[in-house]
Every structure is written in structure tokens, then in C-alpha cells.
Amino acid sequence: MNLNQENSSKKKKSISNSVHSTLNRRKFIYSIAASSAALYISGCNSNQKTSLEVRKIVPPKLDSAYLGQEILCHRPLRKGSPNMSIEVIGDQLIGHNYGHGGSGWTLGPGSAKYVVDLVEASPTGKNISKDASVSVIGGGVLGLFTAYELVKRGFTKVSIIAASFDNLTSHNAGGLLAPVSMSNKPELQPLIDQIGIDAYKFYDLVAKEQQADFKKGAAILPAYFENREDSGLEHYVGKVMQPAKDVMLDFGNGTQRKMVSYDDGIFIDTAILMKSLTDYLHTKVTFVTQKIDKISDVTSPLVFNCTGLGAYSLNNDNEVAPVQGHLIMLKDQVPTNLQYMILVYFDKAKTISGQEVKRSLYMFPKKFPNTPVNDVGVIGGTFIENATPNTPNVEEFKIMIDNAKKFYGI
Hints:
Elements: H1 3-42, E1 53-56, E2 67-78, E3 83-89, E4 92-98, H2 104-121, H3 123-126, E5 133-137, H4 141-152, E6 157-162, H5 169-172, H6 189-207, E7 218-225, H7 228-231, E8 245-250, E9 256-268, H8 270-282, E10 286-289, E11 302-305, H9 311-314, E12 320-330, E13 341-350, E14 356-364, E15 378-385, H10 395-408
Helix pairs in contact: 2-4, 2-6, 4-8
């Protein structure tokens, strides 16, 4: 090889090395870019959230042919907090257990335990024997759970006195375990939370068929909300519940909703459990159908006031107010499609009668006893404070179904 050929060869190698170097640098840059893009898409990038889990949810059938009974009920809300206290009046020890708003079922077992604890720890209560006469005024969920707690504590002469034991708000309530439709002072919230946790443990055992006395009436189902704050369940997380998950609900009709899910939510089939409570207590306590106008009309040394709205007059409690609710039972549904719970809140508005309404949408797989297997599901609901049977606001039933159809994209 001569000198000119050698120089030419070196120049070609130099050009070739330069080209390869440039290509390698490009490959490296492309590789970094591709890796970054992959990290970004997979959610590993710190500025990008992970992809949401998509859950396919079948909406209920909401055409008129699938709508059953329209129900109007009134929750007993006590402003400031429920009354869970004791007092001595003359020769009687009175335990108060009322005013839980829309959370009577959510707090029922824990509230009964708390008030009976107060009674047994009090100086007067310690002197009341287990075979003394005990009267529970009120046949709703709070009255039944209070009687149940007394029976479990060994009291043998318990009477439940109520004007009616049928078709009560407690039978018609939706059934999601969540502290809603309440008005609590902030300093009392830790107590309300603990009572709710005690109730959750009770229903969890029922759902798992591990509760000694009740095998039906509760189930563990995913509960969907628009955000964690709306659920009211964050105080339960880490104690009895797992953290909520961010999910995307796909209703299979082109509509999707971003929600949070508490997969260990508790559904209480209220009418079923009211029957179970009544059946359990039937041979252990005395049921008396009678309207009580004054606590002093009851002569028992130990009396529990579980009258709900009745406490307004029975206990001269001006903090008690009705909160009206509308709900519609569903029929001819596919039960397996409705094994979930949804609760979303809408803006405040005015009813035709001029009352302020807090509208919401809830769907629970509620059933009434002795109904066809496919008659399952309930759509609600409204929160109208101080509305009474004289202001039924019946237009809310149609508004409620229209809102449900919009939510589900039907």
C-alpha cells in the first residue's frame, strides 16, 4: 500500500468511525427517550398518576316498568349530636338513645352498647338488678338494638313499647354503613367514630356469618363515592377498613365515572335485619303496642328513650328535627348485577314547596322480606330538613330517577 492509499484508507475509517459514533449517540438518545416515555406511560414518572383500574358495572333497569314502591320517610336528626346520655328523674334512671339522623343503622349496635355501658357504670345503674323491670320506648332500630344489648347483658324483664312496630323508617332505610345526615359538634366526632367502628365490627361478623345470633342482613360490598371526604369512612381506615382505591366505573354504554371504592364497605339489608332482630327478641322480651306521651307514664326503674322524632315532645327536646327522604324500590332486576353500593351528592336546591333540599343518588341491593327474588334494589335519595308529611315534595321522586339515569348514562 502506498502513502496515498494509506491516507485514503485512514480517511475512510475516520469517516466511518464518525458515522458510527453519531449513530450510537442517536441510539442512546432514542433509548433514553423511549425509556422515559415508557416510564411516563406506566405511571412511574413522578408527574403522572398510575392508570386507573376499570370496573365494569351494570346499571339497574330504571324504566317505569322496573320501578316499584315509592317510599317517603323521615329521619330523626338531633342538631349537635345524637342524645346518648343518662339522667335520674325521681326514682327512675333514664337512658337516652335517639337523634341519629340518617345514621341510625350505621351507629345502632355501637350506640346501644355505649348507652347501656353508661347505665351500668352509673351509681344508680349499679344498684338495678338484672331481674328488674326495664322499658325500652321506641320500636325502631335503636330500640331493638338497645333491647338486644340488654338481653345479652342478662336483663330478664325487658319490654319494648311503641305506637307501631311495622313500616318504620328503620325498615325503609337504605342500608349503607356510613355516618351521613348527621349534625355533630366537632368535639364529639371521636366518640361518633368509635361507636361507628364498634357497629362495623358487629355487621362484619353478620356478613361473614360469624355473629352468633344473626346470619342474614349484612354483606361486604364495594361502596363507591366521588371522593374520600364524601364517604365519611376515612376515620375507619386503618382501624376496621382498608384504604379506598381510585377506580374508573364503566357502565357499558359509553359512560364512565371516576370514583373511589371502599371494597370492604358494609351493606345492611335493613328490612331483613329488622325482622331478624324482632324474631330473635320475640321470645326474650315483651312487645307492647302503646303510644307513650310522657316518660313518667312508664313505671319501670330503668327506662330507655329510643323514640327518635318522638323525643321532640317526649323529652321536650327542641333540637330534634325531621329530615325527609325519598326512595324508590326496584323490581324485576338481575340481583347479581347489583352487588355494589353507590352514593354521590348533588348541589343544594329548592323544592316546589320552597324547602332546601340536598339531593343525592344512592343505589343499594336492598330487599324486603317475602318478595320475589328479582325485586331487589333501591334508588334514593333526598335530605330535606324540617319537611313533614304535610309537605311531601312528591316531585322529588321523578327528579331522583332522572338524576340516576344521567349518572348511569341511560
